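Quick note —
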Amino acid sequence: MKEFLYADCAAVSQNILLCAHGLGLGAVWCGVVMNSDWKKRIAKELKFPVKVEPISVIALGYPNESKEEEDRWDAGKIHFDRW
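Predicted structure written out below.
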C-alpha cells in the first residue's frame, strides 16, 4: 500500500543506520526530495523501473574520527500531560 511507503522507508532507513552503528560503520541518511533533479538522477543512474522511486539514500563508510560522548539530558525538556 503506497499510503505507508514513506513511513515504512523511514523505519527501514533508521534500522539500517542503527545496524551500521552496531557494526562500527559510519552512516548518514540523505533524504530524497520528490520530483528533484537528484531523485531523477538516482533513478536514472541505478536504472530503476518507472514504478520504483528512490525514497532515501544511505551513505556508509568507516569513520576516520571519534568524538567524545556528550550528556545532553535536560529534565526541563520533559513534559507531563501537557506542554
